[in-house]
Design brief:
Arc Repressor Mutant, subunit A; elongated; alpha/beta
């Protein structure tokens, strides 16, 4: 809190309004308005009580009002107010407004506390209204929350829905103050890393993201202004750290953020820019920053990141193919561009308000995941197992909290517990792979490639190049087209986005491009690795779940029946509507990263004029919000 600043204090001078704002220790800003229109503004080093009749500000006010102020006598006769009368009124007003400034200084704490309470109340009313509108929007358009997120991701860009969703869930874990999770987008130059980074931030409320590229002096100023916990729950964006030089430049800052992420506190030592007037020495200030922020960044240089950075979060690589990116730029024009802008300005902002509402009212609720042991078995072989013990369960909690309106609550000993579902755990397993960072579909396709193709033979490639064999004859190299042909013959793999999968396998170093097809620009790929990948599916084992229910009783005191009844209801009602509902996807949409979500495969509707017809904006007065909170009192 800066005690040298006082917000504008206002007073009427006839039909004009004078406001005085204290902007510094000896800095006052005077402004004269009429009918909310500014007449003039002036900065002065004297407070109102110190001004005399000959001061510049008094003369400017007098000149402005002179000859313009009239009054009516009791007889109804209208006459001008003399300059002397106006001057007296100005001096009286300056005395009153100085008293208002002094009163604010004396009662600053209570005044600002009241103002903060009023602003918070207004903010809560606004986000509550918009959160209800968002839930109504889902009902009206017959779409589930997780499918809505995928739909928004598709409109953001081409081919990066999965990575964008991963980034959002990481940021929600930080924002909901479950666990700060760093989100690192790593890859080669020009692959579209910043697109993923930007998407993840756009999906997150504005009050969750802050610029992380600031100096220690800037952090000190922010701490003085906003308090020592101003970074708590924030996502600090470092943007693109292009290489070793950028990383080295910001490593001290990253080290501070690492301390905050892990310990929740860091101490700064700041040397003053100006020497002391008496001693000539530069004073050293010590200040503390508290809180648990996370970091999001992009970089081409993964070797410069130590394990302390890598194990603090999740890293992804761009997956979008050239064709997907081309389709985005090809179609993102005219009516489609306008529709995209409307969706991001209207529908996405409702989603932001919904997230903010959850934080304000539910972020401190405790979450019970009855499938914790199944989740632990899923990530047991991950590279950073000890870090994963807190990482993946936290991501599941973030998904559970995001679906708070559709999750059951246990009330036990006057305390509320939100219960995670199989879906929450499976969503994390579908999006995150603790070993390879790939989807289950990518794992399955790669393991089939190991069966279909042998180690690369230059002789076979040469035979193809001179026309002795065809692509379909080859058994040591392949193209996207050939893999599409082979997988189309496997019923369970039909319709997969093979282009995206091949790109993912290449980014993960499992295959590589060695040449181009004859008379074309398509890549020829070969295997780089020959060991099968383990499945990333999560298995819900009934025995493991039942054993963990007994542990829940030991940890929380909740009898197993309290949670098992919820599991039974979940199993009974495990079908859910995962369709795209009444919404329309952009022309560049790709395969959903959620295995259980069917795609909307219809073509965009055509109007009589031949243009695209999109769903209209949601009604201004939607249906009353349907609250689906279910409670189980144990």
């Amino acid at each position: 809190m800066n005690t040298n600043i006082i917000p504008p204090q206002k007073i009427k001078i006839f039909n004009y309004e004078l406001s005085v704002e204290k902007k510094g220790r000896k800095k006052y800003y005077y402004q004269l308005n009429k009918d909310e229109a500014k007449e003039f503004g002036h900065t002065h080093d004297k407070r109102p009580i110190e001004l005399n009749e000959t001061s510049q500000i008094v003369r400017r006010i007098l000149n402005t009002l002179s000859g313009k102020i009239t009054v009516k006598s009791d007889d109804g006769i209208e006459g001008l107010v003399s300059d002397e009368q106006i001057k007296n009124k100005i001096m009286q007003s300056l005395t009153h407004i100085d008293q208002a400034l002094e009163g604010y200084e004396l009662n600053r704490e209570s005044i600002e506390l009241k103002q903060a309470e009023e602003e918070k109340e207004k903010y809560l009313e606004e986000i509550t209204k918009k959160a209800d509108e968002f839930q109504d929007f889902l009902i009206i358009n017959n779409i589930s929350l997780h499918t809505f997120i995928w739909y928004i991701c598709e409109w953001l860009s081409g081919g990066e829905s999965k990575n964008s969703m991963i980034g959002l869930i990481c940021h929600l874990s930080t924002y909901f103050k479950i666990k700060p999770v760093w989100f690192l987008t790593l890859g080669k130059a020009g692959e579209g890393k910043s697109v993923i980074d930007n998407n993840s931030q756009v999906l997150t409320p504005n009050n969750a993201v802050m610029n992380g590229r600031i100096s220690e002096k800037a952090i000190y100023r922010k701490t003085i202004e906003l308090g020592e916990r101003y970074l708590d729950g924030k996502i600090l964006t470092m943007k693109d750290l292009g290489g070793s030089r950028d990383i080295e430049k910001w490593m001290d800052t990253l080290d501070r953020y690492k301390e905050l992420t892990t310990d929740g506190i860091t101490e700064f030592e700041l040397v003053s820019d100006t020497p002391d007037e008496l001693t000539g020495e530069r004073k050293t200030r010590f200040f503390i920053v508290k809180g648990n922020p996370s970091v999001c960044l992009t970089s081409v240089n993964t070797e410069s990141f130590d394990d302390q950075i890598m194990r603090r979060g999740v890293n992804v690589s761009p997956e979008a193919t050239d064709e997907q990116v081309k389709k985005f730029y090809h179609f993102n024009k005219g009516l489609i561009k306008e529709e995209r802008r409307r969706i991001l300005n209207d529908e996405l902002l409702l989603f932001h308000a919904y997230i903010e509402y959850i934080y304000e009212y539910y972020h401190d609720i405790e979450i019970i995941n009855p499938y914790w042991t199944c989740l632990e078995k899923w990530f047991k072989n991950s590279e950073y197992y000890k870090s994963s013990l807190s990482l993946y369960p936290s991501l599941v909690e973030a998904v559970t909290l995001l679906h708070y309106h559709d999750r059951e609550t246990i009330i036990f000993n006057d305390k509320n517990y939100l219960v995670s579902t199989k879906f929450d755990n499976k969503l994390i397993a579908d999006l995150f792979n603790p070993s390879q960072g790939m989807s289950e579909s990518s794992v399955r396709v790669f393991n089939l490639l190991l069966k279909w193709y042998k180690p690369f033979s230059y002789d076979e490639l040469e035979a193809y190049k001179i026309g002795d064999i065809t692509l379909r004859d080859a058994d040591t190299f392949f193209t996207v087209g050939e893999v599409k042909y082979k997988t189309s013959r496997v019923k369970a793999l039909s319709g997969l986005p093979i282009g995206e999968i091949i790109n993912t396998l290449q980014n993960n170093g499992l295959i590589e491009a060695v040449d181009k097809v004859n008379r074309g620009n398509k890549n020829i790929y070969v295997l780089s690795e020959y060991e099968p990948l383990e499945s990333s599916n999560i298995i819900f084992d009934d025995d493991m779940i039942n054993d963990y229910l007994e542990d829940i009783e030991y940890m929380y005191g909740i009898p197993p029946r309290g949670v098992s009844d919820i599991i039974i209801r979940e199993n009974r009602n495990k079908t859910s509507d995962n369709s795209i509902g009444d919404l329309k996807l952009p022309p560049w949409f790709s395969k959903s990263p959620l295995v259980s979500v069917p795609l909307y495969t219809g073509s965009p509707l055509k109007s009589a004029e031949g243009g695209f017809v999109y769903r209209p904006s949601p009604p201004s007065s939607p249906l009353k919000s349907a609250k689906n909170n279910l409670s189980e009192e144990v």
